[in-house]
Amino acid sequence: MDVLDIKALLITALIFVPIECLFGLRSGQKILRKAFFNDLIYAVFNGVPITLGLIAVVTLATSTVGRLVPVYIGRAVSSQPVWLQVIEIIVIADIGFYLAHRTFHAVPFLWRFHAIHHSIEELDWLAAHRVHPVDQALTKSASLVPVYLLGFSSPAIALFAFIFHAHGLLLHANVRLNIGPLRWLIASPQFHHWHHAHERAAHDKNFAGQLSFIDALFGTMYLPGKAVPERYGVDDPIPSTYVEQLAYPLIPKGKSNEAPATSDA
């Protein structure tokens, strides 16, 4: 992680920590909550493997399938106003995100990677970084490969990436935010907190990353009024440290189950 990334992380903390203190959903939750430093390691070190994985997939896709896309499509797409391109990217990318995210829940082998993210038991802005690099690289690829193949401009993609990252931090943040009827259109913290809920009724719900109406269309939306989850986490025996969590999906299931479950992940 370079100096600019560290500065960005510090700026993010200066923005979200006061917001969580002032508008906290769970006012008793500490800033240095359980697994805080473990998630800080994710925030510092995860960027490189995720970026390398994404570059590899995008490069492979554009050098193979990309050759089948007519040049005039890319020219037409990139010639649109940047604001319009960003809106289109959000829709296209979130459909890809939804499908990839749902697949990670449905396929047992992939779930072992995604379970690392769901092992979070206290949600806040920093917890958003606890994602296995394989999970994140493949999910981001499902979102962005169609975007690159269609020829969207670099400024539009960069602006989308910023919006997506900021929105992702907000979705995990320990904040109480009422966006009214917009919650049926745009993903909110309440929407995503239910995705992390331990309650059985909320399992495999709210897969979209930005547009909650996608879940409404596919019948996977769960927003019970103003209620919030009682607790978060999974029953899987997820280890508590960064290195162990990276290795967890690759360890044969029988052996990994021998390790005691932890409530500190």
- Secondary-structure element series: HHHHHHHHHHHH
Tell me, briefly, the overall form.
globular
Q: Between the first and last Cα atoms, what is the distance in angstroms?
A: 23 Å
Number of strands: 0
Number of domains: 1
Number of helices: 12
Helix content: 55-70%
Query: Approximately how much beta-strand content do the residues carry?
Result: under 5%
Average predicted local confidence, pLDDT: 93
Give a short account of the largest sheet.
Answer: none
The poorly predicted ranges are: 257-265
Radius of gyration: 19 Å
Derived from helix and strand composition plus strand pairing, the structural class reads: mainly alpha
What this model shows, in words?
The chain has 265 residues and is mainly α. The protein has twelve helices and no strands. It has helices at 3-22, 36-45, 47-63, 71-78, 82-106, 108-118, 133-149, 154-172, 189-195, 213-218, 242-247, 253-256. Helix 3 (47-63) runs parallel beside helix 7 (133-149). It is globular and about 55 Å long.
